[in-house]
GNAT family N-acetyltransferase
Amino acid sequence: MQTETTYTYQLLSSDNTQLIEQSAACLAKSFIGIDINGRWVQEPMVGMLDLPYEDFYEFTKEYLEGVVDQGYCMAAVNGEQDVVGVLAGDTSAPEIIGEDVFEGDFKDMNVILHVLEDVDKRFLADFHKRHGREIEDGEALHLFMLGVTALEDRKEVIHELLGQLIAKAENDGLSFIYSEATNNKSTHISKKYHQFEHYQTVDGSSVIHYYKDNDRLHDIPESVAEGTALLYKKL
């Protein structure tokens, strides 16, 4: 008889460096790619660009260390105390860098950066048009990275991570949540089970960067990912 797997969900904190390192490894593994019962699962842009694990691990670790004390990075931990799922976000005001920042073996991460900034710029421009101001620190939750390495109950882990951080953002009095969904599955789950919507501009168009129009990403199958879409949930 198969034993039921149980998970606990823990907010990361800067004084628990081991949990941060385990969470960074979980995110990096899930983005680079893992075998799930004979099926290879990975983030489509990372897979297309063939980014190295070591550099992606350092990128995720630096992000977690930079935002962890804002209180919106959560790990799913199994009975063996292994981190098998992570949802990481922040409440910082969005910033557009507008230039390449990665070098060497990790330089192709700039392709992903520019995709994310493309949808963010359109979102921010529309927000300013609607409200006459910029998004402020502490106003919104930006869900940045979701990774799951659990071989079982993957949807349950995703739902719980999303549900707990959504509830926390609501209890903390934030105004809305947004994220850049980079594949069809995450878009579907967020919309169907957690009432996110494609962000609609004042002219009624969705904010999405289509991979078919990107010189480096056009070979990503539309069945896997149409593009990176800006998802939005008002609280």
